[in-house]
Write a structure and sequence with these properties.
Elements: H1 3-13, H2 17-23, H3 28-35, H4 44-53
Helix pairs in contact: 2-3, 3-4
């Protein structure tokens, strides 16, 4: 899912970004930074936000044999 699709999904549900953030246990400011591309969501809380929003998939880790 793209950021724009996620925002459209929230609009269709009648939710604000702040409401979604609070429902999912994230600080609203951190969610805004991810959605606006300020935080790249490569690791940490920003990554968790992107995964929960469906913007980023979690790839199964591949272990060397």
């Amino acid at each position: 899912m793209t950021v724009n699709r996620f925002k459209a999904l929230l609009r269709s549900q009648g939710k604000t970004t702040r409401q979604w953030a609070e429902e999912n246990g994230f600080p609203p400011g951190a969610v805004y930074r991810v959605l606006n591309g300020v935080d790249k969501a490569n690791f940490g809380r920003a990554h968790d936000i992107a995964v929960r929003a469906g913007i980023k998939r979690v790839e199964p880790e591949q272990f060397a044999a």
